[in-house]
Design a protein that fits this description.
This protein is α/β, with parallel strands linked by helices. It contains twelve helices and 21 strands. Helix 6 packs parallel to helix 8 and helix 7 packs antiparallel against helix 8.
């Protein structure tokens, strides 16, 4: 093995000093702060690492966006074909190197010789069964036989924690030992959870850094035994937030957002709405049906507290987001603020999925899914009873999530002013660069593999 590249989600430059595995790595190697592309969110930055290009070129303008051809807002799609540029995997395997990709995004059809990505099974009876998709097809079967079923509900939701990261490290070590790829990409999500629940400097978040460090040490030690160099990096740093901003409610009050009234709540109607916002952490794309409304809507949103910048047209070039998938307007939140997707004012008219963990149905990112509704009495008992009923064949709604986003304490997506609060790269080799752009990660990985 030549190289392991591990994403430690949400790791800031200041966190390196409290993580012994990274201190040891940088002791013989080097560290650099990363200037991320916008939005500084999972899929956009990973696509930049994979291609060496900004979102205006590779097309991943957020974790989700409005698909104009089908008139659908879709988040967390997984197809490699959505990236509109060649990737690291294409380049490395074209050079004759073997690649394993474990849990980096857009991993379905990525071309990696070995791959794993979360992919629940959905039987026709309505159940959701944790599982993973992978290549070759026997890999996910064999690994789940050896390690147990992938702990999907520890990967996202109110139970999300170290269990999912530990499973991914176990899987990575198995792939390293049994298949010995030249390059191993690994995604470790653990810091994403308590940083958003409680804030990145909370006692809970500090404890999570110790938990992650233990798993990182296992991964790095195992790959070092295979002769691999190592790079550990993050896509963004999470900052403390207190104020959610609701652009869709502002647009609804102005008569621009329309809803479809259904038996299970009022749904965002993209076909009839004059404008709506696709909210993704600290950035939101606003899609406007008629260009004549653009100036009016920009003026309307410019008066909203918590919005730092509104960009349109050629202004999007300055942040690398001038792409057909972007909204007519792009909103960037002020420090300490983030964008919440709800459009309803009456909780009785909220869609039924609003109180559930449902990352694909919601037309915006919802970090409140990490938190149980504080108004629930005996929440574990309620959840257990509902899950038991599902196992017995009864359909029900797992409505245990609050629709109040004010409890969220961490977010990301905007540019941070202090490099210590932003993403970081730690490598096992020396380099004179103390700061790099996210686009430069691609070339550094290629160069290290070719010279190794």
């Amino acid at each position: 093995m030549k190289l392991v590249v591990a994403i430690a989600v949400g790791m800031r430059q200041k966190d390196v000093s409290v993580m012994p595995s990274l201190q040891a790595l940088q002791g013989d190697g080097s560290t650099a702060s990363i200037q991320p592309t916008l939005p500084a969110v999972t899929t956009s930055v990973q696509a930049t690492y994979l291609t060496g290009a900004p979102p205006s070129d590779h097309g991943i303008v957020g974790n989700g966006w409005y698909h104009r051809d089908t008139r659908e807002i879709r988040f967390w799609l997984q197809s490699r074909s959505l990236i509109e540029k060649p990737t690291l995997i294409d380049q490395l395997q074209g050079d004759g190197f073997s690649v394993a990709n474990l849990f980096w995004w857009y991993n379905m059809g990525s071309g990696a010789r070995w791959s794993l990505t979360p992919r629940p099974e959905y039987p026709a009876d309505g159940r959701k069964i944790p599982s993973v998709y992978g290549e070759p097809p026997e890999l996910p079967v064999n690994l789940q036989n050896e390690l147990g079923t992938f702990p999907l509900f520890d990967f996202w939701g109110p139970r999300a924690g170290i269990t999912s990261t530990r499973w991914i490290v176990d899987a990575a070590l198995k792939v390293a030992q049994q298949n010995n790829p030249d390059v191993l990409f690994v995604y470790l999500p653990h810091l994403d959870y308590d940083d958003q629940r409680y804030g990145p400097d909370s006692p809970e978040a500090q404890r999570s850094r110790g938990e992650l460090d233990q798993e990182l040490a296992r991964l790095l030690d195992g790959c070092r035994e295979k002769g691999a160099q190592a790079m550990v990096l993050s896509e963004y740093g999470i900052e403390e937030v207190e104020q959610p901003v609701f652009p869709n409610r502002i647009l609804a009050e102005a008569g621009d957002v329309e809803v479809q009234v259904t038996s299970h709540g009022d749904l965002l109607d993209v076909h009839r709405s004059r404008a709506f916002a696709v909210c993704d952490h600290q950035l939101a794309h606003v899609y406007i049906r008629n260009s004549d409304d653009l100036t009016r809507i920009k003026e309307l949103l410019s008066k909203v507290e918590g919005i730092e910048r509104i960009l349109a047209g050629e202004e999007l070039d300055s942040i690398g987001l001038n792409h057909r998938r972007s909204g007519e307007l792009v909103l960037i939140a002020e420090q300490g603020c983030w964008f919440a997707y709800p459009w309803w004012q009456d909780e009785q008219r909220a869609p039924d999925y609003a109180r559930t963990v449902d990352i694909h149905r919601k037309p915006g990112y919802d970090p409140a899914e990490l938190l149980l509704d504080p108004e629930l009495t005996f929440p574990k008992l309620k959840i257990g009873a509902k899950i038991l009923a599902r196992k017995l064949g009864f359909r029900n709604l797992l409505d245990v999530i609050s629709t109040d986003p004010s409890k969220v304490r961490g977010s990301h997506g905007r540019a941070v002013g202090d490099p210590l609060q932003g993403p970081v790269l730690v490598r096992s080799w020396k380099s004179g660069a103390e700061s790099i752009n996210a686009e430069d990660v691609f070339a550094e990985i290629i160069g290290q593999v070719r010279s190794g």
